[in-house]
Amino acid sequence: MKLPFILAKRFVAGESFTESIPKAKELNNKNLKLTLDLLGENVKDRQTASDTVDSYIRLLDGINEHELESSISIKLTMMGLDIDEDFCRENLFRLLDIAQKHDQFVRIDMEGSDNTQITLDIFKEAHQRYGSHIGTVIQSMLHRSKNDINELADMGADIRLVKGAYNEPSKIAHQNMPAIREAFKEQAKVLLEKTDFPRFGTHDDELIDWLKTYTTKNDIPKDRFEFQMLYGLREDTMVQLTEEGYRTRVYVPFGSDWLPYFTRRLAERKENIWFVLSTMFKN
Ligand SMILES: Cc1cc2nc3c(=O)[nH]c(=O)nc-3n(C[C@H](O)[C@H](O)[C@H](O)COP(=O)(O)OP(=O)(O)OC[C@H]3O[C@@H](n4cnc5c(N)ncnc54)[C@H](O)[C@@H]3O)c2cc1C
Question: Annotated catalytic, 181?
Answer without folding.
Answer: no
